[in-house]
Amino acid sequence: MAAASVTGKHQSGWITISTDEYESMKETIEVLSDIDIIKQLEEGKKDSGKARDFETLAEELGI
After folding, report:
1. Which whole-number Å values give the CA distances from 12 to 19, 26, 43, in the listed order?
2. Residue 2 pLDDT level (bands cut at 50, 70, 90)
3. CA distances (Å), 17 to each of 7, 28, 41, 43, in order?
C-alpha cells in the first residue's frame, strides 16, 4: 500500500490513494457484504481438508 500524505488544513481528514487501491477496497467491501459469498467461503474452509489433486479427480471421474 502506498504512503498517504496530508496537505493543508481540512475540517475532516483526507488521504489520497490510487484508483487501483480504491477499486480493490470497494470490491472487498462488496464481497464481505454478500452473505451468500461469505457462506460459500465458510463452506470452502470446512471442505479444505477434502481437496484432491487433478489426476486423482480425473481418475475418479473416468476422464
Report:
1. 21, 21, 41
2. low
3. 14, 16, 28, 34
On whether the pTM is more than 0.70, the answer is no
The region, left, alpha or beta by phi > 0 then psi within -120 to 50, assigned to residue 18 is beta
CA contacts within 13 A on the Cβ side of 22: 5
Q: What is the pLDDT of residues 36-56, one digit of tens each?
A: 999 998 888 887 777 778 898
Rounded Cα distance between 11 and 19, Å, is 24
Burial 23-49 (b: 16+ CB within 10 A, else e): eeeeeeeeeeeeeeeeeeeeeeeeeee
Residue 23 has pLDDT above 80, yes or no: yes
